[in-house]
Write a structure and sequence with these properties.
The complex is a heterodimer of chains A (321) and B (348). Chain A is an all-alpha fold and 321 residues long. In chain A, 69% of the residues lie in helices and 1% in strands. Chain A is globular. The longest helix of chain B is centred in the first third of the chain and has 21 residues, at 2-22. By secondary structure, chain B is an alpha/beta fold. Chain B is elongated. Helices cover 40% and strands 19% of the residues of chain B. Chain B has helices at residues 2-22, 36-49, 62-70, 85-90, 121-129, 138-143, 164-176, 178-183, 200-210, 220-225, 245-255, 293-307, 324-335; strands at 25-31, 53-58, 76-79, 95-109, 118-119, 155-159, 196-198, 214-219, 232-234, 240-241, 279-287, 338-339, 342-343. Classes of the chains: A mainly alpha (321), B alpha/beta (348). Chains A and B meet through strand 1, helix 5 and helix 11 of A and helix 3, strand 7 and helix 9 of B.
């Protein structure tokens, strides 16, 4: 995840003659290799621990929606669905909000406003997720149940997305909580990216007669595109893996429901909920296989997001001075 | 210079002499979270009884406790549910279940004016199966004459995390309702036919409080501390009993007559007029033949203390103490614990 892509790259140098350089090279190579090995070791360990479930259920694990610890029948579909849908909802809300706020802070806001707001945004990013969860149960869920869900049901109730009894807790609450949690990340990183765009870019656009919006769109956003994608991916990464806050508001029901009012479940939540009391080997293996799938889903989603950017705007080039 | 040497020398001497006094016996345990508050109270109090022994208890959950004692990575395990026959077979040696205290599970709800409600196991099972969906269902109103129940849907709330509390509750439902037994069964997590999942007692009670018409289940201790409305439940003798510490202890007293020798017994729906029917022991798991003489001796002494003097701490922490009949049975069990075949508690 290259968050800051706007860093000038120095071409890798041919084998250095100096002994110190050689040592440095070996040490740094070892550090890089360790990271790769760590990931490989994690995958290997999870594969090994999940093996009983992989052998017992095979491909069925990926298509079944039954999760019955008593009968030892396990399927991952409701959890994969819940993780993807809640993260997608979160991005739908958080990306316009986060990048919008970043543009304001970097381009438009009066100078005296910028430091306190930027500081507040970073402060919000440091709030532990269990706090968001508690706030979600006691404030957000009742608010959704009493005000938002009846309103959505009345106005947009013809869409299957907004049908069913309003519980407050459910997929919608999870998406909103996640959005609130990732907005500060997206805002903080996007702001840094936008601030790194050289002033010459803006001056050139303005000199050509561009309006403020055109300048921002063509000269600033386009220039910082890869950094902005990095900001969004950072938020997405947090959304996919977030456990505590989501568990507290999503309703924890392993079901694939179209309605956003219905309770759902995510991969991280089911592991956190059931791991401690999972006594049978197969049950434990099934939970670890969920963990493995979460890992795979995270990698695939990140890869897809990068592909999307490439296909839309050509390869993302590292910016060179 | 000389003084420095003397200081250094005296330091060495001091360290050398304090060493034996500091050689405490450290006993490691792991397992259930539900009894953690009373266990930590016991371990703390026990230092006054035997300053040489220190306990280190990790409340990682019953599943983890069973795993760790089976792998012999701890000196004792703790579990809210008895080990299954397969689990006992998988252990390297014979394991004893020693009951420590009792807990019970109560139904709590969110209705206008929090009326006192009565349920039977059948009605609870039908609600949690999704067959009874409204508060004014004739099956509920028949039990609660004089209470006006709204024409509102029942929003079922259950635990989402694997838990001994869930095990006790569904164990009771399985005993009463054959349909529940067939469709859902018993376990620390089950495939709930309906309802929302809340994490922990606080998650369930939070959702019940916020959702008009909600019905959930929590531990008795949690309900008492937070003044939640709780329902009376019909017991095996046909009486409606309010959940309390006394009625929970009565459940174990009712079961004492037919107590199996290994204490692996479900206390739900026990005989006895005063017995609250959704109750359970929580157990410590120890090896019959202790691998280490010093630790084993300390452990049996603690078990004896815990089942006698230790019980007086239960009330304050809202656990139900063991009834005296069961303590007698536990005494016999503790005397069977050995080191290399020799009983560790012969003197009593």
């Amino acid at each position: 995840m290259s968050v800051v892509a706007a860093v000038p790259q120095v071409k890798a140098q041919a084998a250095p003659r100096n002994l110190g350089d050689q040592i440095l090279r070996v040490v740094l190579r070892a550090a890089a290799l360790t990271l790769v090995l760590l990931v490989a070791a994690m995958v290997a360990a999870m594969l090994h621990a999940a093996w009983p479930a992989i052998r017992a259920f095979g491909f069925r694990f990926l298509v079944s929606s039954t999760w019955d610890p008593v009968a030892e029948q396990f399927g991952a579909i409701p959890f994969i669905y819940g993780t993807l849908l809640s993260s997608l909802l979160a991005l739908l809300i958080a990306v316009p909000l986060g990048i919008g706020a970043a543009i304001y802070l970097a381009e438009l806001a009066p100078a005296w406003i910028r430091p306190p707001v930027a500081f507040l945004v970073e402060l919000v990013a440091a709030v532990p997720s269990v706090i968001y969860g508690l706030w979600g149960i006691f404030v957000l869920a009742p608010f959704l149940r009493v005000w938002v869900q009846p309103f959505l049901g009345k106005t947009l109730g013809f869409l299957p997305l907004f049908q069913g009894p309003p519980y407050g807790v459910g997929m919608l609450a999870a998406g909103i909580i996640l959005a609130i949690m990732i907005v500060p990340y997206i805002t903080a990183v996007s702001r840094e990216v936008l601030l790194a765009v050289p002033t010459a870019q803006r001056e050139a656009a303005l000199a050509l007669g561009a309006t403020r919006w055109e300048t921002t769109r063509i000269a600033v956003l386009r220039y910082g595109r890869s950094g902005l994608v990095g900001a969004v991916l950072l938020g997405l990464g947090r959304a996919l893996g977030e456990t505590m806050a989501v568990t507290m508001v999503i309703g924890n029901r392993p079901e694939v429901a179209i309605s956003l009012f219905a309770p759902g479940y995510t991969m991280a939540s089911v592991i956190a909920n059931e791991f401690a009391e999972a006594t049978s080997d197969l049950y434990l293996a099934a939970l670890i296989e969920i963990g493995l799938l979460l890992f795979v889903v995270t990698v695939v989603v990140n890869a897809l997001a990068r592909l999307l950017v490439w296909s839309v705007g050509g390869p993302v080039k590292a910016v060179r001075e | 210079m000389k003084t420095a040497w003397i200081t250094a020398l005296s330091l060495v001497v001091m360290i050398a002499f304090t060493q034996p006094a500091a050689a405490q016996t450290l006993i490691n345990g792991a397992g259930a979270t539900f009894p953690y508050p009373i266990y930590s109270k016991w371990f703390d109090e026990y230092i006054k009884i035997d300053p040489e022994v220190r306990f280190n208890y990790q409340s990682i959950g019953s599943g983890g406790g069973i795993k760790q004692i089976t792998a012999r990575t701890v000196d004792f395990g703790a579990s809210d549910g008895p080990m299954t026959d397969e689990q006992l077979k998988a252990a390297p040696a014979e394991l004893f279940h020693i009951p420590t205290v009792l807990g019970s599970v109560v139904a709590t709800y969110n209705l206008p004016n929090s009326p006192k409600l009565k349920f039977t196991g059948d009605v609870l099972a039908d609600i949690f199966l999704g067959k009874i969906t409204k508060w004014n269902d004739p099956k509920i109103t028949a039990l609660n004459a004089g209470v006006s129940l709204p024409d509102e849907p029942i929003v079922v709330v259950h635990r989402s995390d694997g838990s001994g509390t869930t095990y006790i509750f569904v164990d009771f439902l399985s005993k009463i309702s054959s349909e529940w037994d067939k469709k859902v069964g018993r376990g620390t997590s089950v495939n709930w036919p309906v309802g929302l999942g809340g994490k922990g007692n606080e998650g369930v009670s939070g959702q019940v409080k916020n959702q008009p018409g909600a019905l959930g289940y929590v531990e008795l201790a949690y309900a008492v501390k937070n003044h939640l409305p709780v329902a009376s439940v019909k017991n095996a003798a046909g009486k409606f009993v309010e959940p309390s510490i006394a009625s929970t202890t009565a459940a174990a007293a009712g079961a004492a007559k037919n107590m199996p020798e290994d204490f692996r017994v479900s206390l739900t729906n026990p005989p006895g007029d005063d017995a609250y029917p959704i109750a359970s022991f929580t157990w410590l798991l120890v090896y019959k033949d202790q691998p280490n003489e010093v630790k084993g001796r300390a452990l049996v002494k603690f078990l004896w203390w815990m089942s006698h003097e230790g019980q007086k701490f239960a009330d304050d922490l809202l656990y139900a103490p063991l009834p005296s009949q069961v303590v007698k049975q536990i005494e016999a069990k503790i005397k069977q614990i050995t080191y290399q075949g020799k009983p560790l508690l012969a003197g009593r």
